[in-house]
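Thread amino acids onto this structure.
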């Protein structure tokens, strides 16, 4: 981890680096390796183990057209993305990202990522919801895990005194000469050590790659680390935050007893699985299960693509059907598909289902929507630089889910997230390296402000934090979910303000802990979601308000 340096007084500091990367998913590791190989001093700060990221949980794959001369296929990917984004995508961004797909996927392969191939050696391409054709590269149903494995191995092989990975360290806040003044730029991060001490990490550049905020909802497909840290830190520093009303719910998460939601990949519907209500399934079975299952599916009334509709449409359709019927879940039906190929193609899902006595290709799978992806985030330019007052903030970049690039618009097209992450990580790295080689990278100012006073109480009782966290997650799930209303948003605002006051009092008097830092960030991000939802006065994409219909 490098040598510690103790400053005069009570404050402690780590050796300065050129680039501090917060987060160790595909976006953070890809950029970190690229910068380290250019000779820069790089530190990756990750609050759990290096592989504990949303990338590791991604089942589906990465979307991309590999033939750069197949203009028709590229245009189809562009149009699918824009249609899924409900007209709010930045078309220039969409076209540029999709044109870069082949190069960035080639980079991943060179890093050791093993995508599935056909017998003839070509990559096997899958289809997912909202896609007009098969263009998803995957590694069975654990693509994210495979990408994380490869990038972690590459990062570990590069790790030395100039490239350190700081596991179990948590970023607390961005360091500015004048906190909250974006014009001052960013000069590093305050980090919470595994021992509970706050250290200063000076850096010429900080890259936020912290992922999303799924933990603000009770049902989420995200890992427990997804607490909106990057958005909250950037917001406090004065960066622009965009489109936070667009929270994507994955339509199909496994719904069994008290089990934490487990993602059932969209690729399964691309493989032919069909959504039905419990009643529709009973009708299909009574017909001898011989008819086309699509003819029995409620999705016929919601999308021309049926069960392969975009996530916003499918999740809202399921939500409506469950409220109408009172059923606890709908069913994802696979009995009509070839069992052997299905089980071979989805081994991770198969293994999980077996735990609950469900056999893939034999039994219907109970599913409900769960919070999945934060479409909005830190506003960035085409190079991943964080924006404040319409200009780039000195020393601050954001890549991956934490960033809002304009690619997704009002709803993310399936498997475009990994593509966005690797494209913008390459662009950000290119920009950082260019400035470093030219000698124009801003120097870390001397005399950085120290962490606040050390004479704070030690947080002994954690139960109030857990109570506030549960109250926050219940509020967001009940009032700021797939379907909203003005009265629900107002109620959520009141409850979040109350929780926020409680958390603020604790924050001012106690030394930070990971639980406290995360809850503080979740409160901030939840308030942003509510405020953005109140301000969006038209239903579009993932934002649906009953009072606007």
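Threaded sequence (549 positions):
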């Amino acid at each position: 981890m490098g040598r510690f340096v103790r400053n005069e007084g009570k404050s402690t500091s780590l050796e300065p680096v050129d680039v501090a990367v917060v987060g160790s998913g595909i976006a953070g590791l890809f950029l970190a390796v690229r910068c380290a190989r250019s000779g820069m001093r790089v530190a990756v700060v990750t609050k759990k183990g290096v592989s504990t990221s949303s990338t590791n949980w991604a089942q589906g794959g990465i979307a991309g057209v590999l033939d750069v001369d197949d203009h028709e296929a590229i245009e189809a990917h562009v149009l699918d993305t824009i249609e899924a984004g409900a007209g709010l995508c930045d078309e220039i961004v969409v076209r540029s990202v999709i044109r870069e797909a082949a190069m960035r996927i080639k980079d991943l392969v060179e890093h050791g990522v093993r995508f599935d191939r056909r017998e003839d050696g070509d990559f096997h391409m899958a289809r997912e919801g909202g896609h007009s054709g098969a263009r998803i590269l995957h590694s069975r149903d654990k693509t994210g895990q495979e990408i994380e494995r490869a990038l972690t191995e590459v990062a570990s092989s590069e790790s030395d005194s100039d490239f350190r990975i700081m596991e179990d360290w948590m970023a607390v806040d961005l360091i500015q000469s004048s906190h909250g003044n974006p014009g001052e730029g960013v000069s590093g991060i305050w980090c919470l050590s595994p021992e509970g001490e706050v250290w200063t990490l000076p850096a010429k550049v900080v890259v936020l790659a912290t992922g999303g905020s799924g933990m603000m909802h009770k049902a989420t497909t995200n890992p427990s680390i997804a607490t909106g840290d990057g958005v909250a830190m950037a917001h406090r520093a004065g960066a622009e935050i965009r489109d936070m009303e667009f929270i994507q719910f994955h339509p199909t998460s496994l719904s069994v007893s008290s089990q934490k939601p487990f993602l059932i990949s969209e690729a399964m519907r691309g493989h032919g699985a069909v959504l039905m209500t419990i009643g529709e399934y009973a009708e299909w079975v009574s017909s001898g299960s011989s008819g086309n299952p699509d003819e029995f599916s409620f999705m016929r009334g919601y999308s021309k693509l049926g069960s392969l509709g975009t996530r916003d449409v499918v999740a809202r359709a399921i939500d409506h059907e469950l409220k109408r019927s009172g059923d606890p879940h709908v069913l994802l039906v696979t009995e009509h598909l070839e069992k052997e190929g299905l089980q071979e193609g989805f081994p991770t899902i198969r293994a999980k289902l077996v735990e609950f006595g469900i056999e893939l290709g034999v039994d219907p799978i109970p599913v409900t929507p769960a919070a999945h992806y934060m479409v909005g985030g830190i506003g960035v330019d085409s190079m991943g630089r964080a924006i404040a007052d319409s200009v780039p903030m000195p020393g601050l970049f954001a890549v991956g889910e934490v960033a809002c690039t304009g690619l997704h618009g009002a709803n993310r097209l399936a498997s475009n997230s990994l593509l966005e992450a690797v494209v913008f990580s390459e662009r950000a790295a290119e920009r950082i390296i260019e400035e470093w080689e030219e000698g124009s990278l801003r120097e870390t100012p001397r005399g950085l402000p120290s962490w606040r006073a050390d004479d704070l109480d030690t947080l002994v009782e954690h139960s109030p934090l857990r109570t506030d966290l549960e109250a926050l997650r219940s509020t967001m799930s009940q009032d700021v979910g797939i379907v909203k209303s003005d009265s629900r948003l107002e109620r959520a605002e009141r409850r979040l303000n109350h929780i926020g006051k409680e958390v603020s009092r604790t924050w001012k008097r106690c030394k930070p802990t990971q639980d406290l830092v995360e809850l503080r960030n979740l409160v901030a991000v939840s308030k942003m979601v509510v405020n953005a939802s109140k301000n969006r006065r038209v239903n579009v994409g993932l934002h649906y308000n009953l009072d606007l219909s």
